[in-house]
Amino acid sequence: MLSRFLPAGLSGRRRFDSLSEREILALAIASEEEDGRIYAVYAERLRKDYPASAAVFDGMAGEEDEHRRRLLEDYRRRFGEVVVPIRREHVADFYQRRPVWLVETLGLDRIREEAAAMERQARDFYVAAAGRSTDAQTRGLLGDLARAEAGHESKAEELVEDHLKGEAGSTEDAAAHRQFLLTWVQPGLAGLMDGSVSTLAPIFATAFATQNPWTTFLVGLSASVGAGISMGFTEAAHDDGKLSGRGSPLKRGLASGVMTALGGLGHALPYLIPSFWTATAIALVVVFVELWAIAWIQNRYMETPFARAAFQVVLGGGLVLAAGILIGGA
C-alpha cells in the first residue's frame, strides 16, 4: 500500500523514460498478451447470455494476439530469444488495468465501455510517450505502437458492426436492459415504495401525538433504518437469482435496502427543524414529491401507465398518511 505514495525509485518501480528500447518492446509484448487474456475473459463471461458480444471480444483477443506475435518477432530479430521480464505494474507511469475478476460485477454496456477505454488508454499513453522521447528509434517504436492501438480501436468498431448489427444487437441490448430492471430497478422501486409508504403512519402518528420534532425524527430514523435493513436482507435471502434470472442477490439487496431507508428518511429529516408545524409542512411536501417520483419511475422503467401508477401510489400513500395523522391526533 505504501508504495503508492513513494517516489518511483523508492517503490522499486521504474519510470517509463528510464527504460531501454529492449525493455519498452518487452513491456509492449507483455501488455498485448495481458489485454488479449482480458478480452478472452470478457468473451467467456458473456458467451452464455450475449453470444454476439462474446464473438466481438473473441475477435479483439485475436487481434491482440496477432500484435503480440508481430512485436515478439521484432524483439527476436533485434534482441534475441530471451524476453526481459517486465510488466506494466513494474513501471510507475504506465497505464494500469482493473483486476480481471471485477468483470463479474460489470454489465454488458459497462464491459463494452471498459474495452473501449483500454484501447484509448493504451493509444494515448504511447502517443504521449513518443512525444517525450529524445531517441529517434524509440520515438519511432512508440509511434508504431500508438498507431497499432488506434488500429485496435478501429478494428473493434468493425467487429461490433460485424457481430452486433441488426437483430443480434437489438436482442442483446434488450436482454441487458431487462437484466438492469430485474437486478436494480425492480428491487429499488419496491424498497422506495415500502420505505416511503410504510413509514408514513408511525412518523406522522408520532408527530401529531407528541408534537415534538426531535422525538418524531428519532422514530422516523429508527423506522427507516430498520425497514432498510429488513428489506435488504429479505430481498437478498429469498432468491439467489440462479433460477429466476434476477441477478446477484447482493446487488438486489443493496438496491432494496438503500432505497427503503431513503424513502423513509425523506419525510423524517424535516423534523430536524425545531418548529413542529414548519417541519410538518415540509415533510408533507416531501411525501407528495416521493409519491409522484414513485409513479414516474413505474411509468418510466416498468411501463405502467402513468395515470394508473399515480392513482395507486397516491391513493395508497394518502390512506396510510391519513391513518397516521388520525391515530396520532386521537
| Architecture (CATH level 2) name of the largest domain | Up-down Bundle
The CATH superfamily of the largest domain appears as Ferritin, core subunit, four-helix bundle
Write down how many β-strands occur, each being a DSSP E stretch of 2 or more residues: 0
CATH topology of the largest domain: Ferritin
Proportion in β-strands: under 5%
Name the helicity range. Answer: over 70%
Instruction: State the end-to-end distance.
Output: 61 Å
The total of helices stands at 11
Give the SSE order as H and E letters.
HHHHHHHHHHH
Low-confidence parts: 1-10
CATH C-level class of the largest domain is Mainly Alpha
Q: In this structure, how is the largest beta sheet organized? A: none
Based on Cα principal axes, name the global outline: elongated
Explain this structure to me?
The protein has 330 residues and is mainly alpha-helical. It contains eleven helices and no strands. The protein has helices at 8-11, 21-46, 51-79, 108-132, 136-164, 167-198, 200-210, 213-238, 249-268, 276-301, 306-329. Helix 2 (21-46) runs parallel beside helix 5 (136-164), helix 8 (213-238) runs antiparallel to helix 9 and helix 10 (276-301) runs antiparallel to helix 11. The chain is elongated. 34% of the residues are buried.
Brief descriptors of the model:
elongated; mainly alpha; 2 domains; Ferritin; 0% strand; disordered N terminus; 330 residues
